[in-house]
Each structure stands twice: as C-alpha cells, then as structure tokens.
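Work Package 4 report. The design task specified in the project plan requires that, given a folded chain encoded as structure tokens, an amino acid be chosen for each position. We show below one input record used in the internal validation round.
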C-alpha cells in the first residue's frame, strides 16, 4: 500500500475523519506482504478462522490498518501498538489524540481515522440481500415501515439503516452492536439522524462510495 492517501476527508461532530477504502486483493504478493506486517498474535488469530478465505481477508484488513495508522503517526507498521479498548474494540496504545475504526465486507475494507475521541465506520455491498430475521433483529417497527415505503429500494434502505447503526454502535461503544434496534434512525438514506434525544450529540454521515458499496461514518460531538 505504500503511503496511502485517504479516499475521503469528512468534517463531522466538530472534528475531521479520514476514510480509506481498501480492496482486499488475495494475490500471493499481497498476502506475503501482509504476513510481514502482522504480529505473531495477529497471524495466529487469522489462521484460526475456519473459512480460509475469511482468514486471508482478515489478514489483509489488519495489514492495511497497520499501514494506514503508521502513515498517520509517522512510524513503521511494525511499531504500531494496539490495545483493547474498554469494550474490547482495538485502540492505539498510549494515544488519546487519534481514534480509528475498521469495517470489512466481501472484497473490501474501510478504515476511518479521526482526531475525535471515538469514530465508527461501516460498509456493506449494496447487492447484499438481508434475511427477514436480520431485519427484525436490527430495525425498530418505525424503521421497518420506512424501509417498506422505499418502493424498489427496500434492500438499499435496509443497508443504509444497518451500516449507519453499526457505525453508531462503534462510535458509542458499550456493547450496542448487540442491540441495534435501540439505535433508531430517521432519514437513513439521506441524512441519518438518531431519534433518541439522549444521543443527539452523535453525528452520522453517509459515505459516497464506489465499487457497489454503501456505508456510514459516525462520531460523538466534542
């Protein structure tokens, strides 16, 4: 990846976030390079994944994350130290001036880096067709009605809600990823806004993406 330039620079919640979209190319060369960038613990985690394709994708994701963070801090990828945050999500060890978030779907990853305390990013393929059980688990009745009203765009409308909720859950932490129905949104296809006034400080932005992707970025205001 060399010294990667961000695909987007987004003003959000009183700060800025840089977003990179990375194609997860499973070539021998890219996988060999990725192996040289990861720690022994990271490599073991990737190799434990039952599906070999998913394990290789995870390896490429972690390598891309290290390269991007290294380019922002000014160190070599091997020197990046990652800790587990309070909710188990990865965080930069000893750094409170920079936050990041990672998301991946089939063939692509998204990395967001911000000067805000927390940031969340999520992407999905627009072609993904959700099961009805997933819709019921993720959406509130209000949102289900809004998705049903998006005639001809129901799948896209659901994914707009889902990616925005996942981004919000990552930005907020606290295990909300297991309770996405609690993060109710309006206008998810355009300018997503959380309906709960207690979460009014959380800002959400839709990402303008190519490659058949849909995604969102979220961060709490300073």
């Amino acid at each position: 990846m060399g010294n990667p330039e961000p695909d987007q620079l987004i003003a959000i919640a009183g700060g800025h976030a840089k977003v990179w979209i990375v194609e997860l190319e499973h070539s021998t060369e890219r996988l060999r390079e990725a192996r040289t960038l990861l720690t022994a613990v990271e490599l073991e985690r990737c190799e434990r994944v039952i599906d070999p394709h998913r394990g290789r994708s995870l390896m490429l994701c972690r390598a891309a994350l290290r390269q991007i963070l290294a380019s922002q801090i000014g160190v070599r990828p091997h020197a990046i130290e990652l800790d587990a945050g309070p909710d188990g999500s990865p965080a930069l060890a000893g750094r409170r001036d920079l936050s990041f978030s990672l998301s991946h779907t089939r063939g692509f990853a998204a990395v967001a880096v911000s000067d805000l305390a927390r940031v969340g990013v999520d992407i999905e393929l627009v072609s993904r067709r959700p099961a009805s059980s997933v819709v019921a688990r993720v959406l509130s009745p209000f949102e289900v009605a809004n998705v049903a009203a998006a005639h001809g765009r129901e799948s896209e409308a659901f994914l707009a809600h889902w990616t925005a909720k996942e981004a919000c859950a990552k930005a907020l932490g606290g295990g909300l990823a297991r309770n996405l129905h609690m993060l109710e949104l309006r206008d998810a296809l355009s300018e997503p806004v959380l309906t709960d006034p207690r979460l009014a400080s959380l800002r959400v932005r839709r990402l303008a993406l190519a490659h058949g992707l849909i995604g969102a970025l979220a961060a709490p205001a300073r």
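The first strand starts at residue 8 and ends at 12. Validation will be extended to a larger panel in the next phase.
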